[in-house]
Amino acid sequence: MARLRVYTDFLRKRNLLSSARLRTLVDEMLRTIELMPSVGSSLVEPSLRARYGDDILKALVSPRLIVYEYDRAKDIVSVYDLIGCWAVH
């Protein structure tokens, strides 16, 4: 099981979600990512790559995306952000 390193931006946005159901779904996806870090998609929009780097992954929790990176050598998942799907182009 990978170790999660969760950034403040992600936590702040997760805690601001108005839907308890969506918060639960986000938390469930984090547990899935922790167990299977490669579950996310590597087909990432250029705007996300420019902001977070070339090795990021995204996991859909509609209507949001969890943006993270998995360092295989260290077995660490860095969870960077939770963004709206509509904000990505």
Question: What this model shows, in words?
Answer:
The protein has about 90 residues and is α+β, with helices and mostly antiparallel strands. It has helices spanning about 10-15, 20-35, 45-50, and strands at about 5, 55-60, 65-70, 75-85. Strand 3 and strand 4 (about 75-85) form a beta hairpin. The chain is globular, with a radius of gyration of 12 Å. It starts with a strand and ends in a 5-residue tail after the last strand.
Write down the overall geometry. globular
Low-pLDDT parts are: none
Kindly state the number of beta strands: 4
**Secondary structural class:** alpha+beta
CATH class: Alpha Beta
Gyration radius over CA: 12 Å
Distance between the termini: 32 Å
Query: In the CATH hierarchy, what is the architecture at level 2?
Result: 2-Layer Sandwich
The helicity comes to 25-40%
Report strand %: 25-35%
Give the total of domains: 1
Tally the helices: what do you get? 3
List keywords for this structure.
alpha+beta, YaeB-like fold, 4-stranded mixed sheet, single chain
